[in-house]
Design brief:
Layout lengths: L4 H20 L5 H26 L4 H18 L13 H25 L5 H5 L7 H6 L1
Helix pairs in contact: 1-2, 2-3, 2-4, 3-4
Length: 139
């Protein structure tokens, strides 16, 4: 986010107000609508930069999924965020949530890929047979 800490804090507060309005079923004002779109675009930009920095172009196919999951987490946690004006930049919270969620998503994806690797024929031949050979012959 390129702005002052006050601008970041205001944008976060307006994004919270937008979500509160939508949750209550009311129609958000134009100002809240614009703030929400700016907030969402900024979060998506941050998430894409984190994916690119962490993994480059090697996971482009899954990058959109990682970004969407990170955005979902930000949106889920944003209403509970207590916004305080202090020395830290307000968007540091957003960056930490996005970074943590992308990291978790990529780790889950890598574990999935490791568990579901294809078994090639030469690998299969080297595995011990789970059924004794004599049982196979008797069938």
């Amino acid at each position: 986010f390129v702005g002052s800490s006050d601008e970041e804090t205001t944008l976060l507060a307006r994004a919270q107000a937008y979500l509160a309005c939508r949750t209550a079923g009311c129609l958000p004002s134009l100002m809240l609508e614009q703030a929400w779109h700016a907030f969402h675009a900024q979060c998506e930009h941050i998430a894409r930069r984190i994916v690119a920095a962490a993994y480059g172009n090697s996971c482009v196919a899954d990058g959109d999924d990682f970004v969407q999951e990170a955005l979902r987490q930000v949106i889920t946690k944003l209403p509970g965020l207590a916004i305080r004006r202090n020395r830290r930049r307000a968007f540091s919270w957003v960056v930490s949530v996005i970074w943590r969620e992308i990291h978790k998503s990529i780790l889950r994806h890598e574990r999935y890929l490791l568990r579901h690797q294809p078994l090639y024929e030469d690998m299969a031949e080297s595995l011990p047979c789970p059924v004794p050979f004599s049982i196979i012959l008797s069938c």
